[in-house]
Amino acid sequence: IEVSESQMSDDQVGGAADSAIKRAPADRIALCEGTAPDAVDGASGLRAEVLAPPTITSGGQAEATLRLTNPTSIAIAGTLTPVTAGFLAVDGLVVWHSTPGPSVGEVPFSAPFVLLPGESLDRAVTVVAISCTADDDLIAVETGEFPADLPALPAGAASVGAALDVLIESPDGTVLLDLVVAAPVASEITGG
Question: Which residues face 69 on adjacent strands?
Answer without folding.
Answer: 47, 120
